[in-house]
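User: Continuing from earlier, I have the next pair ready.

Assistant: Great, send them over.

User: Here they are, in order.

Assistant: Folding the first of the pair now:
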Amino acid sequence: MKQIQWINILRGYAMGISDLIPGVSGGTIALLLGIYDDFIQAISGLFSKHFKKNFLFLLPLGIGIILAIGTLSKLISYLLEYHVIPTQFFFLGLIAGIIPFLLRLSKPKENFKLIHYIVIIIGVLLLLWMSLNQMEKTDVSSVELTTPMLIQLYIAGILASSAMLLPGISGSFVLLLLGFYGIVIYSVSEVVSFNFALLPVIIAVGLGVMTGFIVSSKLINYMLTHFTYLTYSLIIGLVIGSLFNVFPGLPSSIIVWIITVFTFTIGFLVSYTLGNKTLDEMT
């Protein structure tokens, strides 16, 4: 990590795409791409004596994430509005394809005890509960940028970024759960279109995201270092549970069924192939 790895722009772009989808975690993509540990360590050590090394690692990732959000927010909004089932099933396949990778990485038969399986169940139940209690309470057409609203958006950014770092929990899904997903996505699309009236929304959420990243990364880094397999078991539970969050319902026609099976298969194959490639590089 001594020099800028410009390939990380593409990795960051993939993470940025996932963060636009409620229920899909940027942390999941980072894990799948084999950079999760480095990503967490870099954020955790950003304000240490190794600032330069960590900054050079995070810079291209940040560029990629910003590019993805800036260029694809309108497309993602369109797909989720008009083609939600095939789109969500692509990400379902992506998530399902990472489960074999996680099992091979953690080796449950060798490393897991009863407590690890309990943690997996807790992770699944947590995401199931979130999927049953999601709501969207903010009307984007009548947003008033008051100080209390901006404070709420800042706090929402902290919570969303904390979730974003954990594979299985989507930052955008947390925004959806809190009722702010619509206004954030709408604000991003407006700012990209050079309408800066809602720029304070982006600033408030962005500051919250930065705060959450710094605090949460230290906790996650500590857990991965001192409770590695317990952390893996939580990640497995969260990833399995996230399938409930992404599931949009079943297709209503033969055409949509065909497209949906295709998108799910593509998502699964992409994830499974990348997972095997990552494991090969790690061994």
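And the other member of the pair:
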Amino acid sequence: MKYKLIAIDMDGTLLNNEEKVSERNKEAIMEATKKGVQVVVSTGRIFSSATYFAKLIKVVTPIIACNGAYVSEYHRDNIILENPIKNNDLKNIIDTLEKNNLYYHFYDNENFYTKDLEYNSLKYYEWNKKQDEENKINIQIVEDPLSFVEKENIKVYKIVVMDNDMERIQNSRIELSKNKEIEVVSSWHGSLDIMYKGVSKGKALKQLCNLYDISREEVIAIGDNENDLSMLEYAGTSVAMGNGIDIVKEYATYVTDTNDNDGVAKIIEKLVL
């Protein structure tokens, strides 16, 4: 089978547990692109964070960011797809999270909004200290998020909820899922991702394939967690990481090695190189 596109998740997949891209992964991706294969970075992260890693692997790639709510080419100003959460739904979500005393942050394509520097916002804050200005994530502390979104005309593509108490996370998921205008998935243990209705990595990947005139049979998708399932379901060939959750492994055509053992490179070498 001649493959034309590889969609690769970032966290837990392309990135190892130190949040780095191994040299073997970089080399395999470069060799695949030399064979004419389009590589697509597909992540739940904010677009500006994903751009850093897209540049790092040294390929010109469209980026599926925010779990598919925002798709753009990083090397030029070309937004392919965007589906922000509707303002009324956004306010209702924030109100629910505040009532349940949960940590959350939200973002557009380049601005990261948070009430408290905890969990991922603290991680990005520490990340910024080590980066050149052009690679920093623009973090804005918002004391009253509800008032902020009422006054500011911003496009929020994704809200992330995090808590160490899994029972609180699951109870909040049940409550939030009653709103049929939003999607709620998990991309990591103890977290929830909230997007506009119908948004998923799979639907974004399908739109990219239509744009590039690539059939699903010519696509490989590689991922490790629940938010990757939709793109694995769309792709003709689906690959689960060795460190992936059981439901992803059960669904996948192949299970490769872990993210700490060059699983991405190994499956590209096997199927493409």
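Worth noting for the second one:
Residues 1 and 218 are 8 Å apart (CA to CA). The longest strand covers residues 191-196.
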